[in-house]
Amino acid sequence: MSLLGEGHLEQQSVQGGSTIELNGKGTTTGLNASILYTLFQTDEGKPRLNLAFVWRSQTVLPVDGVFLENGVRVADTASSIRLPEIYTWGVAFWPIRDAEREWKVEVDVDYARWESIQDFDVRLSNGVILANPQQWSNALSIGVGTEYRLLSLTSHPAWNVALRTGYLHSQQAIPDVNFNPAAPDAPSHTLSVGVGFLCKENGRFLGLLTCGAEAGFLGRKALGIDVAYQALLFESRTVVGNPNPTVNGTYQTIIHAGSMTMRVNF
């Protein structure tokens, strides 16, 4: 299958007392292909052990915009962002899967070919080229996660609850010479926890809506809400030899992220 996407780029810096800004946007297409194979099933025909593979093609996003100095347009710009080819392998196993509960354990491996990124050069309409060579390395990410789902609560039989947790380790892709404090790349460890609630059949969602009351092709079958939290713990990194001496130094980064989503099953 193909994928059509649009991107927006905006970068701002202060150089020699002037505020420099680059911004632009563009549209590109890419290819995704995947395969899912079920090795074992339960007596009810549900997967017990799945193997999966996903391939995402390399794609180039052309970015056209403007170059501003202290808010004043200097020139039009033309550049591109190369998105790497990514290979993903996954294994999912359900030690428990019956009418009352499901326990799934999953392991995923991503391999991103970041070495395909050679530069972030920006070409100005006045003929000037802002050279920005890159020397990124390919990187591996390994994640493991688990979900324990109660399919029917005794006190609320129309609801099921899922408890989730996971861990992801990602390798460093950006060398010291290309390091950017705006995206402080380093080997990272991501910890995540989450919980999900799914209301179906004749249950009531937040006491307001009947979850599975609508019939027909687009009739609502269930309503759900999911909450998650992630802590991204980057290993301490000391940068030396960057062309911009103000970038050199030691970086310690922690990122906290939370999300809440609501969904409708038809």
From TrEMBL:
Membrane topology according to the record: Multi-pass membrane protein
Subcellular location: Cell outer membrane
Keywords on record: Cell outer membrane, Membrane, Signal, Transmembrane, Transmembrane beta strand
InterPro entries: OMPP1/FadL/TodX (IPR005017)
Record-linked Gene3D superfamilies: Outer membrane protein transport protein (OMPP1/FadL/TodX) (2.40.160.60)
Coiled coil: none
Signal peptide: none
Major subcellular location class: membrane
Protein name as annotated: Porin
Organism listed in the record: Candidatus Nitrospira nitrificans
